[in-house]
Specification:
The chain has about 270 residues and is α/β, with parallel strands linked by helices. About 35% of the residues lie in helices and about 15% in strands. It has one domain (about 5-265): Rossmann fold. It is globular and about 55 Å long. It starts with 9 loop residues before the first helix and ends with a helix. This is Glucosamine-6-phosphate deaminase.
């Protein structure tokens, strides 16, 4: 069975999507816009005396250098900000991979964000949160205690996963959306796509397990901001925008969120290079 939406040109793609699409000229524009939204949300909450809670990805990552520069140049305090990272790879014992592993999300955030922001502006370490395979209940409880998530940022995987919430057609949409932070096995499709995109194709050394926040935590954020920019995202964005909601393609279950946007580049909107 073929699906007509995979052949939609840019005009058709943007015509009647099931969720709001924002098309930008290139990757840099997408990342700058994401950084600006992060900065402005924190700034507005600081001025209102409110805390800021973000769910943060390591993929996309291009927003972080822009965000760091804005924070440092404009002296934005992150003291009342929580960054809850979406996920982390696990070793075969289902423990976090070492921080010095090239795929470690802990290591990436430390190198790219936390050590680059002026010490007087950075949030305390306990507000830099990762899902913990030893305590999967911690993040749902923390989010409830903090009063919810302001914005969940993220990308979309090749089988429609957001964070590592992998497709599971055995579940109903209601069952899927009820899933919270947990440890799971990474699917062959995701391991392959991530090996190609992030690890030079070294499939045999790709981790087999991960810990991820649930689709529940993402779906209950006040805003969801997704960004796509890889060549295979051409198909992903078309199914996300026009496919039926399905646990076979988890991002489709977020189509009816009250404040969601999917930002893509002209490259992804095009059908050919």
């Amino acid at each position: 069975m073929s699906h007509a939406y995979y052949q939609y040109n840019k005009e058709q793609l943007l015509k009647e999507p099931r969720l709001p699409l924002i098309c930008m000229p290139d990757n840099a524009t997408v990342f700058q816009a994401m950084a600006k939204e992060m900065f402005e949300e924190i700034e507005a909450n600081n001025q209102a005396g409110k805390k800021t809670v973000f769910i943060c990805p390591v993929g996309p990552v291009g927003q972080y250098p822009y965000f760091v520069d804005m924070v440092n140049e404009r002296n934005l305090s992150l003291k009342d900000t929580w960054f809850i990272n979406m996920d982390e790879y696990l070793d075969d014992d289902k423990k976090w991979i070492p921080v010095d592993h090239p795929l470690s999300f802990h290591g990436f955030m430390e190198r790219t964000v936390y050590t680059k922001i002026k010490p007087e502006l950075i949030m305390p370490e306990e507000q830099r949160v990762f899902p913990d395979p030893e305590n999967v209940g911690f993040i749902p409880e923390l989010i409830e205690k903090l009063g919810g998530v302001d914005i969940a940022f993220g990308g979309i995987g090749i089988n429609g996963h957001v964070a590592f919430n992998e497709a599971d057609p055995s579940l109903s949409p209601e069952e899927f959306l009820a899933q919270k932070t947990r440890v799971l096995t990474i699917t062959p499709e995701t391991r392959t796509a991530n090996a190609i995109g992030d690890f030079g194709g070294a499939l045999e050394d790709m981790p087999r397990y991960c810990v991820t926040i649930g689709i529940y935590e993402i779906a209950h954020a006040r805003k969801i901001r997704l960004g796509v920019f890889r060549n295979w995202h051409r198909a992903v964005v078309r199914r996300t925008a026009y496919g039926e909601p399905s646990t076979d393609f988890p991002v489709s279950l977020l189509q009816n969120h009250p404040d969601i946007t999917l930002t893509l580049t002209d490259y992804v909107a095009a059908l050919t290079d």
